[in-house]
Amino acid sequence: MNRIRIHVLPSSRGRLTPVPRPQEPLSCAFTHRQCSQPRLEGQEFCIKHILEDRSAPFKQCSYVSTKNGKRCPNAAPKPEKKDGTSFCAEHARRNTLALQAQMKKSNPGPVSETLLCQLSSYAKTELGSQTAESSR
């Protein structure tokens, strides 16, 4: 059995045109070793290495550990005030949660005595209940 092979060039019908891929963000410019993290917008470094750039609008996080007394090594946005404290994303989140918990503790719900005073207007007195029964 002889088979004949016919080579047919594929037509462009039914083909999808290749969609240009979005440009991938440039990698961090950290020089001590290769870092594959994407750069921050308008900066040369990633969030982990942004403190290498002295002109970047970031400084070291102001959080100090109570256990060992060390400062957090992460970057935090520079505050508007010179002496203002600023925290990295993680410590800012924790600080917000702690403030919310403190607000809940300092503003407890209504005290039971206050609720009883408010409800006392609905309670019937003995004299009032007798006069209501006798008037029926």
From TrEMBL:
Its main location: nucleus. It comes from Pluvianellus socialis (Magellanic plover). It comes from the Eukaryota. Pfam families: zf-C3HC3H_KANSL2. InterPro entries: Znf_KANL2-like. The keyword Acetylation does not apply. This is KANL2 protein. Residues 28-92 form the KANL2-like probable zinc-finger domain. It is found in: Nucleus. GO terms for cellular component: nucleus. The keyword Aminoacyl-tRNA synthetase does not apply. Keywords: Nucleus.
